[in-house]
Fold this sequence. Notes:
The structure holds 2 protein chains of 2 kinds. By secondary structure, chain A is an alpha+beta fold. Chain A is built from 1 helix and 3 strands, in the order E-H-E-E. Chain A is elongated and about 40 Å long. By secondary structure, chain B is mainly β. Chain B contains 2 helices and 13 strands; from the N terminus they run E-E-E-H-E-E-E-H-E-E-E-E-E-E-E. The interface between A and B is large, with 34 and 40 residues.
Amino acid sequence: MTIVIGEWWNRDIISVLQQALFSGAAPNISDALTINGQPGDLLKCSKQGSLILTGLLNQWLRV
Amino acid sequence: MVGPGQTTDVLITADQKPGRYYMAARAYASAQNAPFDNTTTTAILEYKSATSQPILPQLPAYNDTNTVTTFSNQIKSPGKVDVPTKIDESLLFVVGFGFFNCSPGPRCQGPNNTRFGASMNNVSFVLPSTVSLLQAYTNKVPNIYTTDFPPTPPVKFDYTGNVPRGLWQPVRGTKLYNLKFGDNVQIVLQDTSIFSTEDHPVHLHGYHFYVVGQGFGNFNPSSDPARFNLIDPPQRNTIDVPVGGWAAIRFVADNPGKLSLI
């Protein structure tokens, strides 16, 4: 199983990108980092699930 | 530390006291005055039937470059590998932020009336809108790209020092650099302090490469190559160029195509 370290925006990600391209400013920073799409116990909005560790992957927002 | 676009395979031996253990991650933020998401994400590694409350690990400071460096320097190939030594193409690509001047307004929200960009050797890449690079090459479509991407920076400057504002604006273009099939290639990727130094992830399509060296400050072609690891360097397809520093990669150009270094 793969572990994906990512970012979550409380907003349509395409609009984050479009806003950056339109304005010429840096994209808005994310609202939470995630492991397999979930922020985890320190933020009050994760689902329960199980985890087996085999690999790590870091996603990126490419502007 | 795992940089954007990087993959790292890890093996763990479940030999600790059966229980529930946090894994946690937060940002490595190396740029000055740049906002970043400072949350910590967690997940739990748990042994079967374990019910204990996991303990949050202590993580390095957001800008702890020393820990990042020590960690990265430990990563090597499992044994001796075949690193190209007779280099046919020795390239230096200066990478970092670039800023396009613009008139104040809603489309000019970068610092000091600019639009944010990035460049390699002062070229900010423009993706063709009509055909792909490979289509343009195969079908001989004119005026899509040029083959004059500079092998070294067109203007030499103190890359990690105080860079004059006149060098902050790159040129836009669709510039390619041709390699011969079978070339032994070395590329040194050099960060700049334009706007801020920052660690920059760079990915090469179509290849894995050996990371033969990394360092801080400006790459010194006289003294740095003597310290390259040509025995068991790590193999990657994405490198995180150290903040205010450089990384040297080597590969054999044996996979033909129009391959981006992004």
